[in-house]
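Hello Y.,

Per our agreement to keep a running log of every chain we model this quarter, I'm adding this entry. I've kept the format consistent with earlier entries: sequence first, then predicted structure.
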Amino acid sequence: MDWINQAPRSKLRGILSIKTGDSNMPRLLTIILLSLTLSASFANAQLRDAATSPVFNADNTVTFRLSAPDADDVKLWTQFIDEAAPMTKNDEGTWEVTLGPAEAKIYHYCFMVNGVRVLDPQNPELAASLLPSYSLLNYPGDGPQFYDQQNVAHGVLNTHYYFSELEQANRGLIVYTPPEYDPHSKYPVLYLFHGYSDKENGWVGTGKANFIIDNLIAQKTAVPMIVVMTFGYSEPQADDKGEEWGDWSKNVLPRFERDLLNEVIPLVESSYATAPGVKNRAIAGLSMGGGQSLYIGLNNLDKFSWIGAFSASASLDLHGPLLTNAISINDRLNLLWIACGKDDFLFERNNEFDAELSAKGITHEYYVTEGIHTWWVWRNYLRDFVPRLFR
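Predicted structure for the entry above:
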C-alpha cells in the first residue's frame, strides 16, 4: 500500500484511529475490505478487457488486441499468415482478432493502424532493429523449445560500453558468461556477430542465443564458453563508396576488423577468465555477420581456429583472395562451418563459395537447409554449430 508511505502522518492517524471498543468497527472494516476488493476486481477487469495482447487460448489460437478508439481501420500482420488480417473494434474502442493455430516458432508481428505500422504496446518482447522493429510472438509447442528459457542453470549477460580510439566513437558489446562462471577458471570464447540492421543485442533479444547456449550446456552437448556479441558496424567515412555490397564491405570491413582485434578482444581478455591461444577462439555470424566472420577468421588464422557463417554475405571478390593457401588453412582451422537456406536470397553466393572452397581443397562443412533469410533458420544454425566448438 504505497499510499500509506506517501500520506501525511496526521491524515494517517485520522484514517487509522478506529477505537477497539467502537461498535461500528466490524462494519467499517467490512466496508473497507469490500471497497478494496471491488476496486481490485474492477482494475483487473479493466486490464483484461482493455488491450491485453497477445493472449494464447486453450484451442492453441492466439488473440491480438489494440486500443485505438479513433482508428478507422486496423489490421494485424504476422509471419504465419499470407496477408494482414482485419481486426474488429468493440464499443470501448479495442480492436481484436484471433488467429492460428500455428507451428511452434518465434514470429514477428505488428499492427497496421490506418495504414501505419505500430508495435504492440502491451508486449515488451521486441525484435529491435535499426530498420523497422517488430513485436515478437513466441508460439508455444507441446513442450519447451530449444530456444526457450528452461528450468536449467542460466548464464549472465553483461553489457559493456567503451570508447573506440580507432573508430573515435562510443560503442557497446554484450558478454555472456556461462552458468557457474568461475573467474579463477579459463573459458574459450565465441565472438558472435549480428546481421545488417541489428545491433549488439540482436542475438539476445531476437536470437535467444543465451537460452540456446544455456540449454546446450545443461544437456552437456556444448562446453561452457564465453560469448561476445559486438556492435557490427564501422563509423561512416567519406570514402565508403560502392553500390555493391562487396565494394562497400571492402571499405568498411577492415575498420571493423581492427576494432575487434585491437579494442574488443583486449577488453574481453582483460575482463574475463578467457582461455589463451587460437584454439580457444571462435568467430561466427549471420548474414552480414557471416561475411564478417569469414573475412576476419580467414584473415587471422593465428587468432581464430573455428569459423561459422550462417546465411553469409559471402563474396568471391571479397573472400576469394583469402583462400590462396589451402594447406595452411587446413592445418590451422579446426572447423569452417557454413549453412544457408535453399530459399535464401544469398543461397547462390553460398553455393559459389562452397564450390570455391572445394576447388581449392579447403576442408569445410556446408549445410543446405530449408528456409529463407530469417531468424527461424539462424537459431537452428547456432544450436547446431555451438556443440562442435572447442572439442
